[in-house]
Amino acid sequence: MTKSELIESLARKQMQLGNKDVELAVKTLLELMAYTLSTGRRIEIRGFGSFSLHY
Question: What is the pLDDT of residue 55?
């Protein structure tokens, strides 16, 4: 699933939110995740998985 597909899918499921609001939320989340990983920290989303960089 691409970022665009994720945004479209979320917008369809959350019809009370505008497409731009969903797009902003997804972009903000991904930017925060990328920043967190770039600082060497690990991300854990319980019930989903964890993310970390391995060099």
Answer: 83
